[in-house]
Structures are given as structure tokens and as C-alpha cells.
Write a structure and sequence with these properties.
This protein is α/β, with parallel strands linked by helices. It has eight helices and 14 strands. The chain has two domains: about 10-200, Vaccinia Virus protein VP39 (Rossmann fold), CATH 3.40.50.150; about 215-305, no CATH class. The protein has an eight-stranded mixed β-sheet with strand order 1-4-3-2-5-6-8-7. Strands 9-14-13-12-11-10 form a six-stranded antiparallel β-sheet, covered by helices on one side. Bound molecules: S-adenosylmethionine (SAM). S-adenosylmethionine binds near residues 88, 108, 109 and 180.
């Protein structure tokens, strides 16, 4: 049988990774650190890591299938200087990197969300640019390439009090990524590159983990489970479904917890024990202990509690 991957080593489970992460221990060296946001199928990540074996690379991507394809490409390079995470880059930079630790950040063809009503989903807001600044080493830079010129203007407008000087260039296709190839095939020959170079430091500390509480109930009746959606100041918890196994006396509740743009699917277990019914995160959950996760546990406890 053919192995699906040759090596899973580059893939890091962010739920088990120390925050902040001692990257010099992960890579077992002190080489400079670069980050790619939204590496897609990994063409560029595989190429720059091969071209720069004395640099370490960390990639963030949200889609599993794209991570699978990237792992295959990385396996072929035989190098050990790349790690990838299935994680929103905002949460990754907030929690896994100390200030002034990254020399370069690359982002090729971020989703431009061209409709005005969707602009709220765009990545490079002023707040995110400030966060990126704080994580970059002095003189470091962020490079963004896009096919969508209005997106460049939008980023320029957001570049206030971010500690960056900005350079703009019209370029030809030269990254060979899946999305670039797609647009070249559609006849495009001009793309837009922004380089934001750090000129001053914006101090932004690490985002702290939240304490996750175990709740205990005297009694539990799944038929009376009544969940109230929660949304307040960027923290939101919504209910998906509840499954109950009467033989084992265990319920599994699926909720979605959002801390601003960071969305996490969470499974919470309500299980019978000698002390009563415990409300806990399901084992093996690959999540970050954020305020929304703490709130999700509380919401499930409230929903299960008999008044
Ligand atoms: C248009 S694709 C470009 C992919 C690749 N860079 C290329 O050029 O083919 C944008 C990618 O960015 C990823 N992405 C978007 N927002 C992200 C975020 N906040 N954190 C991590 N990845 C993100 C998406 O999952 C998607 O794969």
C-alpha cells in the first residue's frame, strides 16, 4: 500500500504546542524564522525553504486538503526547516510568537473579498498590521501579493500607526502558486506586490490562554437540554447538536466558539461519574483555550443545569 504522506513531522498540532512556542527547540537551531500566511498547496513554501536551508519557516493554512498537498511537497524536499499549522494566522501570531522574533512574513494572494459587504473578512486590518509589526524583528518585512488592485488601496488606507513604511510594485507572475497559475491561465499578466518594512516597534504582548473549568451537575436530563446562544464583545458561542448515549450515560455537545475571527469547533462531554455529571472538553480536542472556549463550557453547563 502506498503511504499517504512520507512524513507528518512538519505538521504541528497547535493544541499541543507551547504558547509561546520555543521555535529554536522545535527546529533544534537558532536560525532566522520566516512565516507564510495562507500557503495553499505549498508551492512557495516548499520552494523558499529549499532555497534557504539556513532559515526556518512556519506556515499557517486553514484547509486540510491544502495542508495534505503541502506535506507531500515538503516530504520530497527532504529538509527539516518547515513546520505547518492548521490555524488562523491571527491567532497563531497572537499566541505562538514572542515579539521581534520573525524576520519576514509572506502572504501570496490572500482572499480579497471583493464585495464591499464582505470587506470585514479581509485579513490585513490596521489591528492585524500592528500585530504583525510587533512580531517582526527590527528591519523585518511583510510581503503581500495580490491580483486585486483595490485590495492594495485598502491595505494602504489601513497602514496608519502600524510602524511600517510601504512600497508598491506592479509585477509579473513569478511565484508559481496554484492561484497565480489559475489567473495566468485566465489571461492575467499583472499582479501587485506590497512590501511593508518595519520602521518602528509596536509593542503587543502575547494573548494569554483562558482557564478552562470543569463543571459538575447533580443531575442531567438530555431532553431538558436548552442552549442559549451567546454573543458579546467579539466572543460568540453557538450550538450545533447534542448526541446522547443512554447506555453509557454520556452526551456529546458540538458548539462553535468564536473569539473575533478565530472560530473553533468544540466537542463538550457531559458524562456520568461517581460525583455527578461532569461537563468537560472531549479528550483529544485540538483547540486553543480561549475566552470563547471557557464561555462555551459555561453555556453547556447552563444548558444542562436543571433550574
Ligand atoms: C487564494 S488562496 C492562496 C493560496 C496560495 N498562497 C496560492 O497563492 O496559491 C488563500 C489561502 O489563504 C488561506 N487563508 C486565508 N485566511 C487565512 C488566515 N487567516 N490564516 C491562515 N490561512 C488563511 C486560505 O485558506 C487559502 O488557502
Amino acid at each position: 500500500m502506498k503511504a499517504f504522506y512520507i512524513s507528518l513531522k512538519p505538521f504541528l498540532n497547535h493544541g499541543q504546542l507551547l504558547r509561546p512556542t520555543p521555535w529554536q527547540d522545535v527546529f533544534a537551531n537558532n536560525n532566522p524564522l520566516e512565516v507564510e500566511i495562507g500557503f495553499g498547496n505549498g508551492e512557495y513554501l516548499a520552494r523558499i525553504s529549499q532555497d534557504n536551508p539556513g532559515t526556518n519557516f512556519v506556515g499557517f493554512e486553514q484547509y486540510c486538503e491544502r495542508i495534505h498537498r503541502t506535506l507531500r511537497k515538503l516530504s520530497r524536499t527532504g529538509l527539516d526547516n518547515v513546520r505547518v499549522l492548521r490555524l488562523d494566522a491571527r491567532a497563531g501570531l497572537e499566541r505562538y510568537f514572542n515579539q521581534k522574533t520573525i524576520t519576514r512574513i509572506h502572504c501570496l494572494y490572500p482572499p480579497p473579498w471583493p464585495k464591499k459587504s464582505d470587506a470585514k473578512h479581509r485579513l490585513f486590518t490596521t489591528d492585524f498590521l500592528r500585530l504583525i509589526n510587533s512580531r517582526l524583528a527590527d528591519g523585518g518585512f511583510l510581503k503581500i501579493v495580490t491580483d486585486h488592485e483595490p485590495y492594495i488601496d485598502w491595505i494602504r488606507d489601513n497602514n496608519t500607526d502600524t510602524g511600517f513604511s510601504i512600497e508598491f510594485k506592479v509585477i509579473k507572475a513569478n511565484y508559481g502558486t496554484k492561484f497565480e497559475k489559475k489567473w495566468v491561465d485566465e489571461g492575467r499578466c499583472e499582479f501587485y506586490e506590497l512590501v511593508l518594512t518595519k520602521t518602528g516597534h509596536i509593542p503587543i504582548g502575547l494573548k494569554e490562554d483562558s482557564l478552562l473549568q470543569t463543571y459538575l451537575l447533580d443531575d442531567f436530563d438530555p431532553d431538558l437540554f436548552s442552549f442559549k446562544e451567546y454573543s458579546h464583545e467579539g466572543i460568540a458561542v453557538s450550538f450545533k447538536e447534542i448526541l446522547y448515549d443512554p447506555k453509557k450515560k454520556v452526551a456529546l455537545v458540538h458548539v462553535i466558539a468564536c473569539d473575533g475571527p478565530l472560530m473553533q469547533n468544540i466537542r463538550i462531554v457531559i458524562a456520568h461519574s461517581a460525583l455527578g455529571w461532569r461537563v468537560n472538553l472531549a479528550e483529544g480536542s485540538m483547540l486553543m483555550p480561549t475566552m470563547a472556549v471557557a464561555k462555551a463550557l459555561e453555556c453547556v453547563y447552563q444548558a444542562a443545569k436543571k433550574d
